[in-house]
Write a structure and sequence with these properties.
Layout lengths: L1 E5 L6 H12 L3 E5 L4 E4 L6 E4 L2 E2 L5 E4 L6 H13 L3 E2 L3 H8 L1 H10 L7 E2 L7 H7 L5 E5 L8 E4 L2 H13 L4 E5 L7 E8 L2 E9 L14 E4 L4 H14 L3 E9 L2 E8 L5 H7 L3 H12 L12
Helix pairs in contact: 1-9, 2-3
């Protein structure tokens, strides 16, 4: 097979591993900077052009779209879909998961466990918003934040009011969520490929920090999931329409709750912690499922 990895840098760990895994399984792998692609949007013969050459003979693509480049990146993925190329994650599913509010609303509709979450527009409604999530301490999240950036733990009601007023004063959209104290600064990353969890790890925040992101100094270790946690992760990915996803879960007193569904999950931390060749799992999934014009997102919203 001829498989394209849509990534801004060939040197990134995840991109490099996917390329190596594909080549080891006998495929022709090519890394393409999706920001350097341009498109001919024609009804009879849509094309993607890269370095002045049409990309016409790929069997599948693996999107690795950066969060800040979602709009253009998903446009490129959508163009490949129009050409009938199989994609590991479809454009609509990527867009759906990147909108944190939309993501949580869809998960809630499917009855998947979530932290109690509030969303409001006016600063006049702050007190009611805080009351919805059970009061302080609570977590305030920027909708556009990634890797723990724009996530604040407000330990008192007054601190929460001040942070919310500050964010809204900058016209930033935010979510307010209950603080899951019993998680003790740890979350679980479940790596879903197809319809099963292929690897998992527990991420623990460093002392004095409640965010467990590895980019913020957190540590990772292998963990055994409960059947409920596995089921929750697979259902969350399916709800987003994602075939490859990193689902982040907290262990709460009322069962596993999903805090994020990532459409371009990194491989470095999960492969090191779990000792699972996740890159090869993704390539295997493409081998078993790719077919011309098979891409078709049927999720309603």
């Amino acid at each position: 097979m001829k498989i394209a990895i849509l990534s801004q840098k060939a040197s990134l760990y995840s991109t490099r591993r996917l390329k190596e895994a594909g080549e080891q399984r006998g495929h022709h792998m090519k890394v393409i900077d999706y920001l350097r692609c341009y498109m001919n949007i024609a009804s009879h013969r849509p094309t993607v052009v890269y370095q002045q050459k049409p990309l016409e003979d790929f069997d599948a693509i693996i999107p690795r779209i950066g969060a800040s480049k979602t709009f253009y990146g998903t446009a490129v993925v959508r163009q490949f879909e129009m050409m009938g190329v199989f994609t590991a994650n479809e454009s609509q599913a990527i867009s759906r998961s990147r909108d944190k509010l939309r993501c949580l609303q869809l998960l809630a509709r499917e009855g998947i466990g979530l932290p109690v979450t509030g969303f409001a527009n006016s600063t006049k409604d702050i007190e009611g918003l805080i009351e919805i999530v059970g009061g302080a301490p609570l977590v305030i999240k920027l909708l556009e934040g990634t890797q723990g950036i724009g996530v604040v733990l407000a330990e008192t009601t007054q601190a929460a009011k001040s942070v919310i007023e500050a964010f809204r004063g900058l016209d930033a959209n935010i979510l307010v969520q209950e603080f899951i104290k019993e998680a003790e600064g740890a979350d679980i990353r479940c790596f879903v490929v197809g319809d099963k969890v292929v690897a998992s790890m527990k991420r623990q925040s460093e002392p004095g920090e409640f965010r467990s992101n590895l980019h913020r100094g957190g540590t990772a270790e292998k963990i055994k999931l409960t059947p409920e946690e596995r089921s929750t992760a697979v259902r969350a990915a399916k709800t987003m329409g994602l075939k490859v996803a990193g689902v982040d879960i907290l262990r709460s007193n009322h069962g596993p709750v999903v805090i994020e569904v990532n459409s371009s999950p990194g491989l470095e931390g999960i492969e090191a912690a779990s000792n699972v060749d996740v890159a090869s799992k993704i390539i295997e999934f493409i081998e078993k499922n790719s077919a011309p014009k098979k891409t078709r997102d049927r999720t309603q919203y």
